[in-house]
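User: Please fill in residues for this 197-position structure.
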C-alpha cells in the first residue's frame, strides 16, 4: 500500500463528475421539449440515450473512480444504478447482497462485473450474492466469449504490458486484487463465469 493518491482513479472520478452535469442538462432539455410538443421517436431516442449514458457514467465512477476505505454505499443506491444500466440493454444485473457495502469493495465488484460483460457479447445476466466479506459473482448468457489470456492474468493479479483500452477493467481489477492481497477464485466454462471473493 502507498500513501500516494491513485491518480488514474482521481482522473476517472473527475471526468465522470464533470460529464454528469451536461448530460443532466440535456435530459432536462428533452423533458421541456416533450412538454411543448408531442414527443416523437427522435425525442425518445435522445432521452433513452441520455439515460443510458448517465447510468454508465455512474457505473464507471464507482468502478474506476477513487474510493475511500471508510465510505459505505447503500443497497438502494446500488440497485438504482444497476437498474438504470440494465434498462434497455441486453444485460441484466441481479444484486442479491442485502447489506450496504464498502465503496472499495463495490469498486472491485463492479470492475469484475465489467470483465464478465466482455464475455457476454449477446447479453445475459450477472448476479452478485453473498456478504461483503464473501461475495459470489456469476455471469450467464446465450453465448460466452472468453478471452483466456485476460482471465488468466486476472487470476494471477497481472497487468499486460500491452493492455488495450477495451481490457482496462481487467488491468484495474488485477491491480486492485494485488494491492489488497484479496484472494479470488475465477472459473470460466461453457455454462458461465463464477468469481468468488
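Assistant: Residues filled in for all 197 positions:
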Amino acid at each position: 500500500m502507498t500513501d500516494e493518491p491513485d491518480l488514474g482513479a482521481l482522473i476517472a472520478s473527475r471526468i465522470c463528475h464533470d460529464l454528469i452535469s451536461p448530460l443532466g442538462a440535456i435530459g432536462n432539455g428533452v423533458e421541456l421539449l416533450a412538454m411543448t410538443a408531442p414527443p416523437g421517436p427522435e425525442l425518445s431516442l435522445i432521452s433513452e440515450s441520455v439515460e443510458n449514458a448517465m447510468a454508465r457514467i455512474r457505473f464507471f465512477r464507482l468502478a474506476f473512480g477513487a474510493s475511500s476505505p471508510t465510505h459505505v454505499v447503500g443497497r438502494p443506491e446500488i440497485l438504482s444504478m444497476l437498474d438504470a444500466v440494465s434498462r434497455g440493454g441486453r444485460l441484466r444485473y441481479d444484486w442479491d447482497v442485502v447489506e450496504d457495502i464498502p465503496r472499495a469493495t463495490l469498486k472491485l465488484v463492479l470492475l469484475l462485473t465489467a470483465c464478465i460483460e466482455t464475455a457476454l457479447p449477446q447479453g445475459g445476466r450477472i448476479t452478485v450474492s453473498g456478504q461483503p466479506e464473501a461475495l459470489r459473482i456469476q455471469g450467464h448468457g446465450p453465448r460466452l466469449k472468453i478471452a483466456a489470456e485476460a482471465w488468466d492474468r486476472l487470476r494471477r493479479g497481472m497487468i499486460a504490458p500491452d493492455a488495450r483500452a477495451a481490457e482496462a477493467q481487467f488491468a484495474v481489477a488485477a491491480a486492485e486484487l494485488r494491492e489488497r492481497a484479496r484472494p479470488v477464485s475465477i472459473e470460466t466454462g461453457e455454462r458461465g463465469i463464477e468469481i468468488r471473493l
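For context: Residues 28 and 148 are 43 Å apart (CA to CA).
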